[in-house]
Amino acid sequence: MKFGSWTFHGEAIDLQIDNDENGNQTMDLSTYLVNGEWQIISTHAVRRVSYYKCCVEPYPTVNYYLHIRRRTLYYGFNLIIPSLLISLMAILGFMFPPDAGEKITLEVTILLAIVFFLSMVSEMTPPTSEAVPLIGVFFSCCMLVVSASVVFTIVVLNLHFRSPDTHEMTPVVRRVLLELLPWLLCMSRPGYKYVKANVIDEKIEIPKNPKLTFNQNLTSSNSGYEAKILLLHSIHSELRKVVAFYNKEENDEQIQTDWKFAAMVVDRACLLLFSVFIVISILAIIMSAPHLIA
């Protein structure tokens, strides 16, 4: 705020600034009423004297620099803390089991809540394209995290519900999701041991019986003996079909288990990455703020 006179020069009206108790030139706040939304930080005052070509008399002016700051207690309890809790819920969504069927519903609900809070902030702040408010940056960061969590949740569900009839795990995917990432994330899997990014199968394998071959061109004078041999051979053929069927079922179940464990690995990786990202983002936003929540 600038105070001065264009009608009278400095010899007629000489504006001066009174010093406070400490000798500083500030605004007199003896009659100031405390405001619940704004807080006065400083009221620095400066006296300047200007000379113009038209006149030889000085023209003094007094400039008051009023530094005010919005109180953030309301925004902290009603916007920032709920958004932090919602972001933490988005992180905990990666710990939600995919078989429950509510994983994607939880993430989408959290995304809608963040969008609602962001719309409230946009209504509170005046529209401008030159600068973005810090609280707007905070909510944009939260919305980015939640949106990315929805995308990765869809990826996790896609991996979890894959079957050997529709998808085949390539060696690169097997190497990355079943060997390298579990070792880096210090994950454990029953029946397997990870040593230097390599997986060792510790399951006890039952030795298979040697294949029995029957010669159908058996010659025997006893017709009953030949009938028994042919009957045993037909039983053996049927048993081999049953064993092959159960071996296929076991193999398919193993492949499905590998896909489910791969989805679990992606879940764990997303949990750690998003946790680190949110912590770093919140610390960066807090450090860039002129003050903490008060």
Give the SSE map.
Layout: E1 2-4, E2 38-50, E3 59-70, H1 73-92, H2 103-124, H3 134-160, H4 171-184, E4 192-195, E5 198-201, H5 223-288
Antiparallel strand pairs: 1-3, 2-3, 4-5
Helix pairs in contact: 1-2, 1-3, 1-5, 2-3, 3-5, 4-5
Can you give a write-up of this model?
The chain has 294 residues and is α+β, with helices and mostly antiparallel strands. Among the domains are: 2-71, no CATH class; 74-170 and 262-288, Neurotransmitter-gated ion-channel transmembrane domain (Methane Monooxygenase Hydroxylase, Chain G, domain 1, Up-down Bundle). It has helices at 73-92, 103-124, 134-160, 171-184, 223-288, and strands at 2-4, 38-50, 59-70, 192-195, 198-201. Helix 1 (73-92) packs antiparallel against helix 2 (103-124) and helix 3 runs antiparallel to helix 5 (223-288). The longest helix has 66 residues, at 223-288. It starts with a strand and ends in a 6-residue tail after the last helix. The model has no long low-confidence stretch (mean pLDDT 79). Keywords: Membrane, Transmembrane, Transmembrane helix. Pfam families: Neur_chan_LBD, Neur_chan_memb. This is Neurotransmitter-gated ion-channel transmembrane domain-containing protein.
